[in-house]
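Purpose: get a first structural picture of the assembly so the mutagenesis plan has something to point at.
Setup: two entries, given in the order below. No constraints added.
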Amino acid sequence: MSPAVEVLQGTLDLLILKTLALEPMHGWGIAQRIQQVSRDILQIQQGSLYPALYRLERKKWIRAEWGASENNRRAKFYALTKTGRQQLEKEMADWKQMSTAVALILQCV
Amino acid sequence: MTNSPRWFSRKKKWEQEMNDELRFHIERQTAENIAAGLPPKEARRQAVLQLGALEGLKEDCREQRSGFRLESLYADVRFGLRMLLKNWRLTSVAVFSLAVAMSVSVAGLSVFNAVLLRPPAVAAPDRLVTIYTRSPADEFENVSYPDYKYYRDNNRVFSGVGAFPNSILKFDMTFGDRDDSATISALSDNYFAVMGIRPALGQMFVPGDDDKKTPGAVLSYSCWKRWGGDPGIIGKTLTLRRHRLTILGVAPQNFPGTVFGFASDVFITLATAADIFQDPGSLTDRAQRGLLLVARLKQDATQQQARAELQTLSGQLASAFPQADKDRVAVFTNISVLPPDSRSTAALISGVLILIVLLVLLIACANVANLLLGLAAGRRQEVLIRVALGATRGRLLRQLLTETAILCAASGIAGFLIAMVPLVKLSHFNATLPVLGAFELAANFRADGTVLAMTLGLIFIAGLAAGLAPALNSSKPNLAAAMTGEIAVGGTRKGVLRNALVVIQVAVCTLVIVGVGLCLRSLHNLRAVNPGFTARNIAAVMVDMQESGYSEAQGRKFYEDIRREASQLYGVESFCLAPALPLGGNEWSADEVHFTGAVGDGQQHPKIAYSPVDGNYFATLGIPLLSGRTFGPSDSDKSPEVVVINHKMAETYWPGADPVGTQVRVGDGSQMMTIIGVVGDGKYTDLDEPTRPYMYYNLVQHYQTGIALIVRTQGNPRQWLGPLAQTVRKLGAKTVLVPVTLDEWMRFTLFVPILTLEVVSGLGAFALLLAAVGLYGAIFHSVNERKKEIGIRVALGALPSHLLRLFLGQTAIISGLGVLIGLLLGIAATIIFNSQFYGIGPVELRVLIPVALFMLLISTAIAYAAARPWINGSPMDAVRHA
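Result (structure tokens, whole complex):
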């Protein structure tokens, strides 16, 4: 395992939304997916995942539904809503702008 | 938020689902860990560890749930209510103080709003203006009818200009078989059209009615109701001074009349009024400036254009009629319920009242703050436990402020309701004014949105003022001090805060009491003024010859008749005839005086006030004759005119000489009069007027249509009021006002200062009551907190007298400081409002010293009452239960 990096403050929402853009997923799955896709570099504090999910649900960016998991257990699946998709696009654009800017500064200075 | 089963089950289900979700997470992670090769038990342990502290996590999730904030507020409110009810004694004292102060504030604000803020209830009041004139001699003067017509017909900026005299008249009226005394308002024929007032029934006057002189009348809504509310009243007639008026319509309910505060019964046009009151001059004479104008700006006209237009028109009038209109400029202000000349006075008076009211509210807030501090003292344990369990300061503050908010809201609502009772009653009621008789008062003091908004603002401010300091103070518990039990002994910083509150209360209360003292002193000074005549045992009755239908010859005969009757009245020592009683608040009349010979510089023609009286006037009223004689039988309407002057006039224009026998010319200079006597000075219009020159003309030579029979009686003059009215009735004449004694009449001239004193005293009583409650509470608590110390002191040999001296000494310092600050504020207030008082210096020691002594005495008495139970208690008890 390579040294894990803590998820940057404020980017957890973006990561959750992006992960859910592919398909509805339960909480554990989201944590797992983020870890895998980032090749284990990003490690989510599992404790902060659930309050974040509840917050996004309250903002109506994602919605939850109970369904059967891959091992056939009852699990709560989260899916992106229409406003959530718009929010994802906006946050991705913001992030790109931000990272470009940070990269520029790091190159120059 | 409710505690309904549905809400409860929904919350339970939400909780269940959250647990299920987290359990699934742990299971899934456990399975993953097992797959990674961990033994099952360790796999599960790792899974739980990875998730973190479970209870904290759940709490974080719950905070995200929608409705959480509302729920925690609900919990705060519920807990707050429980704490307040538990301490119901403190709570009710706090709510009572605040509710009383709040009701006073709401009442004050409502009056302020009704008098100064609210526009009249007419269509589009923002386009309406009031027009009056300004001349070098007078800041506010009304407009004459011919000038009004000129402005009305020649301007291009107003869509209409209406006019009305700012006065009402009361007359007997007959409608069907009903005899009624009715209030009459005259107004121009287009008044209703300009104001945009639509009839409730029939029609209003229309432009042109003034010229037609068809005697019509419009009834007010309340008069129509009083006369039976007959929907078929249109076209019927009423009789006023032997004129038959056809009822054209009924005004809407929200239009009580043209003069603020008074309900009119009957509206007539200016032309009708001139006809009925036999005053044709009011329509033609440019010197009779009796009208206030209202005008509606055209849609496309600006205020600047209107200002310029009025200036042009008044310039034209000034050059066409220099005698009446030279240097006279018409100006306008936005319309309000009050005429322009009384607005600044009204603003001053209500400003002062609002200030006092807010000071009373401040005292009440300090009370509540103090009581909350006392409440907090008993809750230190609770706060400590909360802090120990991890409550943040913000969370504690929220809880404490919630409690204050409950207190304030409860007292605010209570205060609002308490205030509404008198206000609604005051808005429409019949008042019997002294001397003038019964009038229907109609000022809409009912609360509207503005008052409601101001009340909410007050509640908010009161909440902050009362709650913030104690909340900040008690949400900052000193754990270390609490552990060592230090806090049970006095001398914490809270003592300082509490003392500061008491100082503020005492200071504000002193200030208000100083105000009461100033009003009282000013009134006393006014009463002590020597009016120049004797008011004892004087009664009077007033007769209107015109109303009685007398010609001048008949009137002169009536003079003789009433003199004969009066001389036969039992117990009448002396009597006289005069057009009015002195000190009516209005100047009777004034004439220019031209001196002949070497008096003055020969150039000045001073205007000197006069009244026409008969020869007995001076003896009856006890005005001393200083030189010469008064009017006698030899002075008739055929003989040369004679005049009696007062001492001041003689001294001013003939210093060192006796003017008796000198001739002066009066009026336009054509009328020659001989001075036959000099009498003592007096007060003629108002008690607070300076001594000034005054003249008396001979009544016989100056016939008056309104006359007062003034008699000096042998005993209590009230007993002659009935016989006087009877005498007039026997002669077949009509009285104008109810018969009065001169004492009553003079009290009426002091109506405003007495009313002010009553209002300020009422507020002062509230302030004193609330401050007393606050002082008692503060001392009670500070002594209570030092129980342990007292016990130790007693154990060490302190006697009750020592302890008493200790506490009283402390109180004396606190209240002494408060009184001192209050006195300084009082001196500042005296200087600012000096013009409102009579005979009051900037540092009025005769007020300040008694008030200071009174306040110190009261606070010492309260301190004694509050501290006494503790001082006489058993020292063992004190130490043990501290």
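The longest strand of chain B covers residues 178-187.
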